Structure to design on (75 residues):
């Protein structure tokens, strides 16, 4: 049985009004509670900074298998 992970998924995070705040890619699982995420700039879509996030802080994010699916979701 394969291990469930967020690694490799694309995401959008939203504020309380449903507006997309961040877009990015989950790039590495540090442990069962922490992941490294890569953020992308809105204007040019280029890589921005990377940050560590606890899984519980990602619970309301929308996750996608591909970058194209993520982009389609915010159109």
């Amino acid at each position: 049985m394969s291990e469930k992970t967020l690694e490799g998924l694309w995401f959008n995070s939203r504020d309380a009004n449903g507006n997309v705040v961040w877009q990015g890619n989950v790039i590495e699982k540090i442990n069962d509670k922490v992941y490294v995420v890569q953020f992308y700039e809105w204007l040019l879509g280029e890589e921005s900074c990377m940050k560590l996030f606890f899984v519980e802080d990602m619970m309301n994010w929308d996750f996608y298998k591909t970058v194209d699916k993520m982009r389609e979701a915010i159109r």
Q: What stands out?
A: The mean pLDDT is 92. Residues 11 and 74 are 11 Å apart (CA to CA). Residues 67-73 form the longest helix (7 residues).
